[in-house]
Specification:
The chain is an alpha+beta fold. Strands 1, 2, 3, 4 and 5 form a five-stranded mixed sheet that branches.
């Protein structure tokens, strides 16, 4: 399953303007990469580490939801991350 969290000001600055963004995450990296490809994202934009993800703009978030990504609240995201880390 693939998920997105709410848009938030995480410190992105684009052309001098602060831009809100969110995260695209999935139960597996394979699901994550396949979904990101559907959104036209480059593999180089992937951010591995403790929680693998892609950062999304509002336009890409809207498209991800249209394509079936599940919307999570920030609390739900935190619980999902905790559960994922408990299984790794």
């Amino acid at each position: 399953m693939v998920y997105v969290d709410p848009m938030y000001a995480n410190g992105w600055v684009l052309r001098g303007w602060e831009v809100k963004n969110c995260h695209l995450i999935a139960d597996t990296d394979e699901e994550l990469h396949a979904f990101a490809e559907k959104l036209g994202m480059k593999r180089t934009w992937f951010q591995g580490g403790k929680t693998s993800h892609y950062d999304l703009t509002q336009r890409r978030r809207d498209e991800a939801v249209r394509l079936g990504a599940v919307e999570l609240t920030r609390r739900e995201l935190a619980l999902w991350i905790k559960a994922q880390r408990g299984t790794k």
